[in-house]
Description:
- Keywords: Ribonucleoprotein, Ribosomal protein, RNA-binding, rRNA-binding.
- Belongs to the universal ribosomal protein uL23 family.
- The protein is an alpha+beta fold.
- It has helices at about 5, 15-20, 35-45; strands spanning about 10, 25-30, 50-60, 65, 70, 75-85.
- The protein starts with a helix and ends in a 13-residue tail after the last strand.
- The longest helix is centred in the middle third of the chain and has 12 residues, at about 35-45.
Amino acid sequence: MRAPEEIILQPLVTEKSTALMAENKYTFIVDRNANKIEIKNAIEKLFNVKVLKVNTLMDRGKLRRVGRFAGRQPDRKKAIVTLRPGDKIKVFEGLE
């Protein structure tokens, strides 16, 4: 079994993810090969909260240009985690 730090790469803070915090939903960038059960267990171990639901989606990397050279940002996987009412994740405190 992988360590939780290998599964949860970083929190995702955008305008939309900040608005979801009012509904007790938090967004993270996760390992592309992680499944919902692994994500749930990793969040519960890292932040000592109870996860009710995990929604995942794959983001295709955007096409970027530097002069005449075209490249692509890497693909990434996002997870939107719904927590039990009353639970909070301290990483996001002060953003709401």
